Queue: 2 jobs
Job 1
Amino acid sequence: MEWFEQVRAAEQRRDWDAAIALVSAHAECHSIDPCRHNNHLWHMDLLVSAERFPELTERALTDVHARRRLNTALRERGMEAALRDRAEGGDRGALYALVRLLCETSRIREAERAVQDLGPDHQYAHQLVAGFRSPSSGAR
């Protein structure tokens, strides 16, 4: 059985430790080898599946893929406070994820306030809120 088949089998068993150990041996951030780079992204997904948020948070300090995956996972889980903390620390991606979360849960005014408090100069954050406000967006 190839290593990636072993990873898939470990994923099926929800044996995250085994899956993470196997894939991380074949992963490299920003590798010129697209397979190693894709394995790095797979590794980040496995860390989310394992809910290893402290490890992802540590990696997010230097790894853009970990940062993006962490912010997405926090948004998907509705972890508003964690996103707010990250946005307060200067993570623009966390601000955008927070704004999306607030807008997706019909809290447009809170999203506007978050943008004003955490990123008044971030044009993209303003655009996100405006997109949820526009009639063509299907916003509430």
Job 2
Amino acid sequence: MSATTTAPDPRPLSGEPLALDLLNTRWVREGAAQDLLRDPAGLAVWFAANGLDGRFTADAATLRHTLQARDALQAAVDGPANGPRDTVGVDTVLGHGRIRPTLTPEGPGERPEFRDDAWGPGWLAARNYLELLSAAPDRIRGCAHEACVLHFFDTSRNGTRRWCSMAACGNRAKASRHYARAKDA
């Protein structure tokens, strides 16, 4: 594989908003925990999946900061349902960048700026989490399957999506319920 070719994305769920897509770099396959961000090559795969390749360098420092952002987002998203969220980690990540207002030929704009570009991907994910919280915090969800660790932003019309994927987790849950009913009968 050449330096410009990125390995395929092995994750079962991708394409979610950036904050949740970062969380989904951890998943479970056949009972074993998987982690795309084990090394800079995995970070490059995540960059490519999110249009960040070319903007940031997939190196050890960027990986370290992106993992810190992922852990902070995990603590905030998976915090207690009826208690205060763990906001310190996300706020710390956000402290490494800012939005700079700009004037472009098209009109007013914004551009993110970072003290250190290695914080860029993690900062963008943390910023995206704020946007999701502003838009519809009740639609940030974890998959309802007990063995799944994936997250999604529910864009269904009535807001009742329960599974990361109906074809995978939803089908497993239905099959499990069917098996339990058949066993009891």
